[in-house]
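Let's do one together. I've listed all components of the complex below, 727 residues spread over two lines.
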Amino acid sequence: MIEFRLPSLGSDMDQGKLLEWHVKPGDAVKRGQIVAVVDTSKAAVDVEIWQEGTIAQLLTQPGETIPVGTVMATLLAAGEVASTMPVTPVPPVAPALGPAQAPAMPGAAPSSVLPALRKPASPAARKRARELDVDIDSVTGTGPHGAITIDDVEKFARSAIAPVPVPAMRTVQSAPAVSVAAARHAEMRKAIAAAMSRSKREIPHYYLSEAVLMRRAVDWLKRENETRPLIERVLMGALQLKAVALTLKRFPELNGYWRDGGFQPSTVIHIGVAISIRQGGLIAPALHDVDCLALPELMRSLADLVKRARAGSLRSSEMSDATVTVTNLGEQGVDTVHGVIYPPQVALIGFGRVAARPWAEDGALRVAPVTIASLAADHRVSDGHRGALFLAALREQLQHPEEL
Amino acid sequence: MKMSYREALREALREAMSADSRVFLMGEDVGRYGGSYAVSKGLLDEFGPDRIRDTPLSELGFVGAGIGAALGGMRPIVEVMTVNFSLLALDQIVNTAALYRHMSAGQFSVPVVIRMASGAGRQIAAQHSHSFENWYASIPGLTVLAPATVDDARGMLGLALADPDPVLIFEHAQLYNLEEELSADKVSEIRSARVRRAGSTVSLITYGGSLPKTMAAAEMLAEEGIDAEVIDLRVLRPLDEATILASVRKCRRAVVIDECWRSGSLAGEIMARIAEQAFYDLDAPLARVCSEEVPMPYARHLEEAALPQPAKIVAAAKAMLGK
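Okay, and this is what the predicted structure of the assembly comes out as:
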């Protein structure tokens, strides 16, 4: 018997609310398959499973909030036979959700049993969700076949308001419509607050920065993009990510986790990309194996990740397994980023804008595109000397864009 | 005053015959036998054989004669024994009665009223149990009525006769013995649907012989705390969309109950109109309870199983609520 437990979808997560199962008892599951949608305080996340087998029992009901590590489902490994004894202390409530509950409607339209292409929600519920600014995918359905009804949306809207303390302002409670996004935002703010406080409390940061000449990178990218159709053009951000990934291979002490009083280097390079959310807030899902991705592929993955992060449909692995973070605030026009490390990671690399600056070269002063790359690193794991070498290596890497 | 559906129809006939000398009744067994469903019992003695006319067993012939009489200035009421036999008169009804105003560029109208019994539930087997209201309700040029209450049975005939174009009246055979209090206010129009039971959770939309079953279902739902609204269409053509949509917009869920077979049913048409016009108000997929798509069985238990029943309506409504 294999147990599927609620994974931690980020170091700041200690519980999650199951929104939806994508599987039912009897379903065969593969490694990496999305089996459930769980609401962390930050986002609704598609949770993947990393074992293969057949779902035996679903132990958690949609709508339940459970601590990280709770057994959510049991699986039978290949060849294993279902035991008649319930294996877990959690009462098996899953059959109540099974297809057997479908109403015995004689001659029911066959279309009603086809799997829905998206989470089922009534048109009225979708309309109301838009009016209330509720993310419909976060709502748990209680309607026919688990569909989200207008009632579910309104209840969700009310419950989303509830945890936000409104001291001495009872009169505003009659207007929930505008506050759902705000409540959601408040939740995310809390999560960010917890992670960043932990970071500054626990991690002895040191900061380094280095001006990097970007003329070659800019020119090379311009030439490359001239040969590409508009939608396949590569942005500087992707180039920088690739440069960071390749450089990190030589600096393992910047890539990994500080856990249980020691450093665990990571063999893979999953870069958490800091993405600002339009409604406010921040999320840093992972781009996997960036060092192995060709640039066009990396660009596609990055665009996809940004899109999904903003749509709230990230996968559990993306939420939890970044080994290092890169943040690029160049678009906002800053010169230098002094990053706050996302625990339990041990480094954060920042990029400011690429701007035309005076640049001394071969005894002459020229104007050239320059960016300031910065490193915030965990002094428990690495020292300034190694950090400086990393930035120098990154600088050199960016002088050879054709290698990226 | 308490009155049966049958008596109400007879009173309506009597009133119409007395009020207008152009009105006469013709059909199989309407005279000496008093009508297959005893609707015209006693009228032969009262109005004589010129105005209560027995006809040969030829629907094509006597429906055509009725249309001719209407064209000639009379106000005939043609009784086709049941909708099953009206198939023999389809050409007269569809190609002649419904279209003459159009084909004559408005020179002729056909003020005929054609009454017929419809529906199943009395163990008279497949050939005598049809519900083809939907066929007629699809034809421009016809008005199609389905009185489901004693008030409508009493009041619709006179209004139908006043219509300058052909009107079909479907009397569900299960309703003839229905007894209800006749209200003091006479029915005054044949253009709208009625809310027979106000509710807020699910609209049950029906007509004719399915109305009592639907009302029973609404009561059963009420016992489970589900507040159903029941709409009696009354008029199957033209459909009163405003009443249907207002109810659906309020309840956000709708079950259409229709004794026709599901495929091509009037229920399907109503669902389509709801989907077209109230899609964003719906909180559950639309549902319908129709007859099973089998020839109507003779055996009682099979016939009951094939027809819409209160339990099926309740199940459909509950499924819609995720219960």
